[in-house]
Amino acid sequence: MLVPVCMLLCLLQQCLCVDLTYHVEERKSPGTQIGDIAADTNLMESFSNHDKRLITFNLLQKGVTKNSHLFHFSKKSGKLYTAKQLDAEDMCIQDKECFQMIDIAVRKGTSFIKLLEIKVIIEDINDHKPEFPDKNVHIIFSERDGKGTKITIPYAVDKDVGALNSQITYHLKKNKDEPFGLLVSKSIDGTSKLSIQLEERLDRELKEIYKIQVIAKDGGSPPKEGVMNVHISVSDVNDNTPVFSQSIYNVSVNNKIGAMPVLSLSANDLDSGENGRVSYRLSPKTSKTAKAHFDLNEETGEITLIKKFILGQELSHKLYVEAIDSGSPPSSSIAKVLVNVINQQNNPPNIDVTFVFKSSDNTTTISENIVVGSFIAYVKVTDHDLGQNGEVKCNLHHDKFQLQSFGTNKYKIILKSPVNRESENHHDVVIDCQDKGLPPLHRISKFSVNVTDVNDVKPQFSKEIYKFRIAENERSNLPVGTINATDPDLGSGGKMTYSLLTDNKHFLPFQITVDGLILTINSLDHELQDVYKFQVLVKDHGIPSLNNTVNVSVEVTDKNDNAPYFTFPSVNPFVMDHVYYPHQTKNITVLRASDSDSRENAFLKYEIYSGNEKQLFTIDHYMGLLSFTRVVTPQDAGSYDLEFLVKDSGTPVQSAKTTIFLTLTVSNKTVEVQNAVKMKADEKIHLNLVIIITLISVIVSVIITASMSICILRYCHRRNIPQGEQINTPHRCPNDQRHLMCPSYHTSSWPDVPAAVSAQSKSNIHLIEPKRISQEKVNIGHRGSPQKLHAPTELIHQRCIQEVTAENEKNAIMIPSYNQWRSTKSYHSDGGHGWNENELGKGKEKPGCTCVSNMSRH
Q1: Res. 466 pLDDT band, cuts 50 70 90
Q2: Alpha-carbon distance 233 to 422, whole Å?
Q3: pLDDT at 7 over 60
Q4: Is 156 in contact with 128 (CB distance < 8 Å)?
Q5: Residue ranges per structural domain of the chain
Q6: Which residues pair with 460 in a beta bridge?
Q7: Which range is least confidently modeled, 42-46, 325-329, 529-533?
Q8: Pairing mode, if any, of strands 263-264 and 225-234?
Q9: What is the mean pLDDT of residues 336-355?
Q10: Contacts with 146 (C-beta within 8 Å, 6 or more apart), sequence order
Q11: Partner of 267 for a Cys bridge, out of 148, 242, 381, 538, CB 3.0 to 4.6 A?
Q12: Is-contact 185 217, C-beta < 8 A?
């Protein structure tokens, strides 16, 4: 009696563990709602509205079985539905409650809250009618049989498992004058035993054949019925049934194959001949499990264990054995055999792992952004051994996952530390469970966890800055360079798109392909812009999308695509008159040219191309200074058509020409005394002016600087007043020399002035104050492209000394000596015009009258 009591306690414990019980009829269409777990458990009442949105219900599955996927579950609402049409007859057996157990994991976000065990009872409907094993039965009564003689006939079987739907009632359909009745009695297995009873003796001579019907009707609503036709012949028949020695047998058997027979049954039939020969078979009421493990010998009635029971199977079984004689019709009786299987071995525990997330076989899948502490799997351990042989302890050793106990032989697997798909996308987990038997037995369960990717890494560039070079004037759609970025994410998170970042204020003549290749949109011009700096944006296609930027510099290299042009003379041809005085410097004027190119393409060289047959003139190849090659004599006076050539240093060389119509006049007058007076006055004024400016600058530097600028502008304005206004002002240049372009020069010191100067000359000398030219940008129109030109911030000395005498002598105009030009410093601007920066030496000019006006600065 110990085993049944233990089973009863186990069943009672299972019943107490059920949280909810639902009922559903079989044959309902898929999608039929069974129950609302969230509402029925009142679980949602303890959460706020915000937390309610995080509550999910997960149906735990235990692998693929015959009854898998019977139900469908809504994770958010907690409603349970049928997943397919349920068949109680296929799922359950008669005389037992038909139900299925479901485990539901309740989570808030990724946190585990509770495990619910749901019992779903499948209610049987009356979808089967009672069926007789034979539609037609033939029985024989002997005419010697008296009133009350009965003959057993087959009973009907209803496949329904419900108590009412499988409950059968019988009645006999016959004519009123036919002497037959139907006797119904219950067998020990719950089935009915049917007999046709003779209500009075039969007279074979009067009637030999009778036809009656037995109607079997179940208790369903509406009821269904089956019909068996009974053909009765009057003759001598089998009127005794086999009888067992006892109706119930109770035996125990060890769980070992090949042992002695479990039991040998024997039934006695008082009939003789075929009517008394008995055979045995298992009744249809015997379960399929029992039939699979036990074998019944049809001739001898021996019951043998042919298949060992495994862990988890029931150890108590009922066998219904039917003894049938060979009469016509045959008579039978049934005995019940209770078999208890004794399991004295120490068996290892059984591990059942159910995953929370999507799984296939023994592999589950989690996302790499899952939070630590998330519920991964539910583990249930069973060991049917008794005593310490059934006490189990489990362990899991892994750096990412942890096994936590929350009940007897119940565990949950949670995430212990963050996972990263980029470093490891697959984890193998082993659970080891061991009992406390002697010796202890253990079992391991292995499963795998795959980590899916999320877009958590932004694209990375291979360089901090990308620098490219491309020549100007190339065709459009020319490759400039490739931007390389990498993203270790998978799928859309690893697919990248490139784009150029612009401020929409300046046109950017580039485009970028999906592969990061930068192309030109149109031909580039170095003179328009020599360097382009911008950023490239790369973003992946993940959700959310991640991006990154990198700086890009594209240098447009110069080609010699611009020819130089003269800025002085600014017209071609240019007419110029020059008066030569003895002892004057040899310098005549300075030619200026510009080139929009840069570097060697804008390094200019000047030449006299034609008109210098007397070899009277020479030009500095790099400074453009035109001067005489020797002392000029009156025989050299006359007109000269000088053609000049300026060439750059690019490849191929480009050049420009200009013509100066020079009229040379040679004078015998001298101006040495005037120059001496001038130089002395210049020196004196310069020293005083420096002292005054220094003292005043310390006090109010800003105000004095502005005042000096205004004074300089006024003097420059007076210098350009027409000749008519200069007649009464001895400080102006003569009108007949206004067309001359006297070069301005840069120096770091005032020019030397001779000591011997007459007092009379001082009144005829006027010094223009030093003018500071700041670095500025000058736009020179060339091919429509603005150029940046620079001038050094140095003192530019300009002197205009006029001497008016009573004899109305012609005013002499002198140009600074070549030695003074050699002391000059100038910068070559990026436009290509100006002086190359060098030190050409120092010297003193001969005294003379110098006029500088309308000089083009750059």
Answers
A1: very high
A2: 88
A3: no
A4: no
A5: 2-123, 136-234, 243-342, 350-452, 460-557, 565-657, 672-822
A6: 486
A7: 42-46
A8: unpaired
A9: 82
A10: 198, 201
A11: 242
A12: no
Give, as one character, the DSSP assignment of residue 782: B
- If one counts every other C-beta atom within 10 angstroms of the C-beta of residue 571, the result is 10
- DSSP for 784-853, please give it: TB---------EEE-B------TT-PPPP-B---HHHHHT----B-TTS-B--S-------PPS--B---
How many whole angstroms separate alpha carbon 457 and alpha carbon 377?
28
Kindly report, residue by residue over 675-719, the tens digit of the pLDDT: 443 444 444 445 556 566 667 766 766 676 667 777 777 666 555
**Inter-residue contact 280 to 294 (CB < 8 Å):** no
Q: Which pLDDT value is given to residue 794?
A: 31
What confidence score (pLDDT) does residue 701 get?
A: 66
pLDDT given at position 322: 92
Residues 322, 281: contact at Cβ < 8 Å?
yes
pLDDT score for 776: 33
Cα 57 to Cα 44: distance, rounded to the nearest angstrom: 12
Q: Would you list the DSSP string of 21-59?
A: EEEEETTPPTT-EEEEHHHHTTGGGGS-HHHHTTEEEEE
Q: Quick check: 580 and 849 in contact, CB under 8 A?
A: no
Residue pair 667/812 in contact (Cβ under 8 Å)? The answer is yes
Which residues are 466's β-sheet partners?
Answer: 552
What tokens were used for 693? 């400016």
Q: Which two tokens stand for residue 257?
A: 């194959």
Backbone angles phi, psi at 157, to 5 degrees: -125, 130
Strand-pairing partners, residue 295, are 304
Binned at pLDDT 50, 70 and 90, residue 749 comes out as very low
Is the model's pLDDT at 732 over the cut of 70? no
Do 703 and 812 form a contact (C-beta atoms < 8 A)?
no
At 587 the three-state DSSP class reads strand
- Give the C-alpha separation, 250 to 767, whole Å: 144
Report the greatest alpha carbon distance in the chain. Answer: 193
Q: With bands split at pLDDT 50, 70 and 90, how would you rate the model's confidence at 576? A: very high
Cβ atoms of residues 159 and 129 within 8 Å: no
Contacts of 53 (CB under 8 A, 6+ apart): none
- Give the CATH number of domain 2-123: 2.60.40.60
The fold adopted by the segment(s) 350-452 is Immunoglobulin-like (2.60.40)
Task: Domain 460-557: give its CATH code.
Answer: 2.60.40.60
Grade residue 640 by pLDDT with cuts at 50, 70 and 90: very high
Whether the Cβ atoms of residue 350 and residue 312 lie closer than 8 Å to each other: yes
pLDDT digit string, tens, across residues 833-850: 333 333 333 333 333 333
Helix (H) and strand (E) counts in the chain: 9, 53
Q: Do domains 350-452 and 460-557 have the same CATH topology?
A: yes
Would the pLDDT of 543 be above 90? no
User: Looking at domain 243-342, does it have CATH number 3.30.70.20?
Assistant: no
Cα 384 to chain centroid, rounded: 50
**Is there a contact between 325 and 276 (Cβ–Cβ < 8 Å)?**
yes
- Architecture, CATH, for domain 136-234: Sandwich (2.60)
pTM listed for this prediction: 0.38
Domain 565-657's class?
mainly beta
> Which whole number is the average pLDDT over 761-779?
33
pLDDT band at 179 (very low <50, low <70, confident <90, very high): very high
